[in-house]
Amino acid sequence: MKICMAIAMAAPLALLGQTTSARKTPAARTLIQELVIANHILANEGVVDAYGHVSVRDDRNPQHYLLARHMAAGLVTAADIVEYDLDSKPLNGDASGGYTERFIHGEIYKARPDVMAIVHCHAPDLIPFGASTVPLLPVSHMAGFLGEGVPVFEIRNPGGMTDMLIRNPELGHALAQTLGNKPAALMRGHGAAVVALSLHIVVGRAYYMNLNARLQAQAIALGGKVTYLDPEEAKKASAQDGFERAWEYWKHKVSRP
Amino acid sequence: MKICMAIAMAAPLALLGQTTSARKTPAARTLIQELVIANHILANEGVVDAYGHVSVRDDRNPQHYLLARHMAAGLVTAADIVEYDLDSKPLNGDASGGYTERFIHGEIYKARPDVMAIVHCHAPDLIPFGASTVPLLPVSHMAGFLGEGVPVFEIRNPGGMTDMLIRNPELGHALAQTLGNKPAALMRGHGAAVVALSLHIVVGRAYYMNLNARLQAQAIALGGKVTYLDPEEAKKASAQDGFERAWEYWKHKVSRP
Amino acid sequence: MKICMAIAMAAPLALLGQTTSARKTPAARTLIQELVIANHILANEGVVDAYGHVSVRDDRNPQHYLLARHMAAGLVTAADIVEYDLDSKPLNGDASGGYTERFIHGEIYKARPDVMAIVHCHAPDLIPFGASTVPLLPVSHMAGFLGEGVPVFEIRNPGGMTDMLIRNPELGHALAQTLGNKPAALMRGHGAAVVALSLHIVVGRAYYMNLNARLQAQAIALGGKVTYLDPEEAKKASAQDGFERAWEYWKHKVSRP
Amino acid sequence: MKICMAIAMAAPLALLGQTTSARKTPAARTLIQELVIANHILANEGVVDAYGHVSVRDDRNPQHYLLARHMAAGLVTAADIVEYDLDSKPLNGDASGGYTERFIHGEIYKARPDVMAIVHCHAPDLIPFGASTVPLLPVSHMAGFLGEGVPVFEIRNPGGMTDMLIRNPELGHALAQTLGNKPAALMRGHGAAVVALSLHIVVGRAYYMNLNARLQAQAIALGGKVTYLDPEEAKKASAQDGFERAWEYWKHKVSRP
Q1: Which of B196, C2, C213, D183 would be C125's cystine partner, CB 3.0–4.6 Å?
Q2: In chain D, which residues have their Cβ closer than 8 Å to the Cβ of A219?
Q3: Dist CA A4 CA A40 (whole Å)
Q4: Residues of A with catalytic annotation?
């Protein structure tokens, strides 16, 4: 399945060189290429469907971030990447072609200078935990970063009865406050926001956070006592290598001709 | 998986231009093309298997609707589309080549002048809710339209002991009565009927109704308290953009050569 | 996924004409072609993995049946089909190249003159029901044939402590006795045997029996009361068309070049 | 899905002859080819993702074993295979390019002269059983080898609070002690180690151990009484043919051009 998807992605990827070489900015090109690959990996691995998005802080200006225009992640090409300031205003043109929820990105980048990349997703195994009083806990060492605790964002607190979307800076700010200094927050009835020091790590975290949710649900359903990672185990496990081996594999799957 | 399916679908799609150009009716051609794509998307995304169907009200005559002949949705081409009146009689030829359950479509179009497109499916995560006393409720904002409530059609009420199929106008009428003014009804032991203002929306609703059923079941299985969308949240969430971003993605997946 | 599998299957299918034309028996060729397609469909749809098999009664001699030699169903070609008598002895050569459990087929054909085709499978959603005291019941109208009741074969009764396999005519006979006049029997710790009047129906029954098991398990897990098909509904639903629409779709998926 | 993956794997496989023929060691070439295929099968069948590895004892020197360098199993080629001694030191070069957890392999080969091949995996249906007090038991005859009992390795016992990885010979030794003379051990919060007399059997065991875990969880969820294989049945079932039929099928799926 994944390789087939990769075939589909090959055409957009092929456009990369052409599109970005026209800009004559090799540094930006690399980061944009990475962001396009991150989009395709997230779609290919089922972390996002037609909805959900991934951004990266601009490596030339930490007050800017890069994010695709309003479209499905699996279809994103380099030409679709837009540069935003931290108020989530596009540097070129107006915001009408952007994701409604771009404020998730801008407000977290504002509140968290350490964060370099952000995923917003509706990954299917995360939704039940976002809606349940049962907390998401690390049952697999690949999700040790969950050991810091996963806050749940209740949009009713800052917003009352909404359409559930982070439609403005205020809601984005409230989400960033709920996230605090953690690697991820669940969003009740909606999905999750995941942050990290790099694109590779944020993609790995989003993937394994979703997988861990599935495994935890299965462990609970067995009916016995479940042993989760101890916070110290979780902390040590989360200090590992940044999902480089997984990135290489996932990238291979989306980049084959 | 989906892209592979797309490859398979490419041949039928390729027939579109040829088949419909012979009719010299550009307007109809567009609607038929859309209906063929809707069939392929539903099959490709697992909303229908060899059974289940999708129709659209004729844009030239609201007393008519378009529906494939008796066949699997994944194999439908433009040449397979039949035009029916609201008594579900084909305008050309006899009804022997039609879906047994075409009355689902005809009777709902009769009862609901607002409805422009209908899906009947056996989507696998919907069947358990159709058979259970546990009501289907929106746990994800993508399924806000479920907040209006999802009636369950019990065919025993109008039909007694049947073979479960909507084989005649009377059963179709009874189903339409159960549906009332809602976007969807479950059919006990069978599947669902989903309606909307357009093909794009009805496909999105059928997809996310099924996904929401899976997520709700998972949330229940966790054993904690589950917070569903408040009716007001659901109403606001369901007013969103009509699944255009998803349609573009799903269409891409079934239309690549 | 399915289409990709189909691509893989294309090579074996391509061998069909060549292999069977050498025998100069057009009638047998058609039946063998159908049996090869049935093997590929069952593998492609996940009803069998490397294990499990499907047979058909010889249309030229009801005291004979056709079954592949000992191999994975997904790899079967016409040249791999062996003709057996009802004692499960091959007409040509010795039995060393045959399935260990061919007695499932021979003994059921002996006991059930009405049966024309048999599937033995380890379909994953059936194993839990074979091991549980919870009976398999029809929750979907596509599995109405389950309404006759699904007996569970406990190999310990005739065989004591075995390796679980139907290794001889005596165990095959005992399984046939458990099956009685029903369309299917579960085999505890092992899988199922499914029978029908034709290859198309037996493939459809094996597929929807497995799907129904999944749906029933999901319905039970919701925690509410579950309404199953009434025996009369089940009987009427099972009288339907023989899964022809599904066969055409599944065949399309395994026969594309 | 699997076939598509196979297509992706075709390129690495094509490199085999070229790479290994340069060494002029036909015997090694066969074993290395088999090890590469085992890597690809495990990835293709979902037993491993980007993490997890498989080794084989060197057929020319039982004090050595063969294992890929630090990379995803699905990408392994013959040129990536490294030879280690039983202290998990590479014969050529330093260990910096090796799997962190290669000590799983070295220490088990030391403790178990009968073992010829080892899989370490994070197969998703195994993690819940590793974390739960509910024991993994054989519910399917394909997993009869589980009847010997599946010990659970608690890394806290030998290691206290760790990052969960088998980072040194001491932890590898402790795991080998927990494994004892059994075919497999679960690793709490991590995955499993599976051993066998051959590559074919260890791949089959890893696959069916994972499948059995899923089936057992489903059987438990039904809520009735579950009948597992009796230890004698399990012992007899596990004496079967070594998964040759499955190996041929899985190999076919990863080796098609």
Answers
A1: C213
A2: 127-128, 131-132
A3: 12
A4: 101
Distance from CA of C73 to the nearest CA of B (A): 21
Tell me: the pLDDT tens digits for D216-229?
999 999 999 999 99
| pLDDT for A174 beyond 80 | yes
Q: Identify which of A140, C249, C46, D146 has the alpha carbon closest to the alpha carbon of residue B8.
A: C249
- Tell me which amino acid residue B101 is: E
Query: By the CB < 8 Å criterion, does C222 face chain A?
Result: no
Average pLDDT, whole number, for chain B? 90
Contact C49, C36 (CB under 8 A): no
Chains touching chain A, criterion 3+ CB pairs below 8 Å: B, C, D
**pLDDT of amino acid D11:** 33
Of C50, C71, C162, the CB nearest to D236: C162
- Rounded to two decimals, the ipTM of the complex is 0.89
Both tokens of residue D208? 């069916």
Q: How far off is chain A from B222, nearest CA to CA, in Å? A: 6
Is the Cβ pair B162, C256 closer than 8 Å? no
3-state secondary structure chain B: CHHHHHHHHHHHHHHHHHHHHCCCCHHHHHHHHHHHHHHHHHHHCCCCCCCCEEEEECCCCCCEEEEECCCCHHHCCHHHEEEEECCCCECCCCHHHCCCCCHHHHHHHHHCCCCCEEEEECCCCCHHHHHECCCCCCCCHHHHHHHHCCCEECCHHHHCCCCCCCCCHHHHHHHHHHHCCCCEEEECCCEEEEEECCHHHHHHHHHHHHHHHHHHHHHHHHCCCECCCCHHHHHHHHCCCCCHHHHHHHHHHHHCC
Neighbours of chain B (3+ CB pairs under 8 A): A, C
| C-alpha span between B138 and B145 (Å, rounded) | 8
Taking the CA of residue B256 and the nearest CA in chain A, the distance in Å comes to 8
- CB-based contact D132 A222, cutoff 8 Å: yes
Q: Touching check for C223 and chain B: CB below 8 Å?
A: yes
The CA distance from B64 to B61, in Å, is 6
Q: Do B163 and C256 touch (CB under 8 A)?
A: no
Predicted confidence (pLDDT) per residue in C232-243, tens digit: 999 999 976 689
The answer to whether B189 faces chain C, any CB pair under 8 Å, is yes
Residue where the block lists tokens 């006979």? C173
Q: Tell whether D3 is within 8 A of chain C (Cβ).
A: yes
Q: Please, which pLDDT band fits residue C8 given cuts at 50, 70 and 90? A: very low
DSSP bridge partners of A186: A152, A192
Band of pLDDT at residue D95, cut at 50, 70 and 90: confident
The verdict on a CB contact (< 8 Å) between A122 and B144 is no
- List C-alpha distances in Å: D31 to D38, D52, D237: 10, 19, 28
Q: Which of B41, B227, B232, B243 to mutate to test the interface with A (most CBs of A within 10 A)?
A: B227
Q: What are phi and psi of A85, to 5 degrees?
A: -90, 180
At residue A254, the pLDDT reads: 95
Q: What are phi and psi of A62, to 5 degrees?
A: -65, -5
* pLDDT surpassing 80 at residue C121: yes
Cβ-based burial of A66 (10 A; exposed 0-12, middle 13-18, buried ≥19): buried
Helix (H, G, I), strand (E, B) or coil at D65: strand
| Concatenated DSSP letters of A36-51 | HHHHHHHHHTTS-SSS
Give the pLDDT mean for B233-247. 89
Contact C219 B132 (CB under 8 A): yes
Radius of gyration of chain A (CA): 18
Could you say which of C226, C232, C249 has the minimum Cβ distance to residue B50?
C249
d(CA C24, nearest CA chain D) in Å: 30
Of C139, C142, C246, the CB nearest to B131: C139
Q: Is D256 on the interface with A (CB under 8 A)?
A: no
Q: Alpha-carbon distance D225 to D248, whole Å?
A: 36
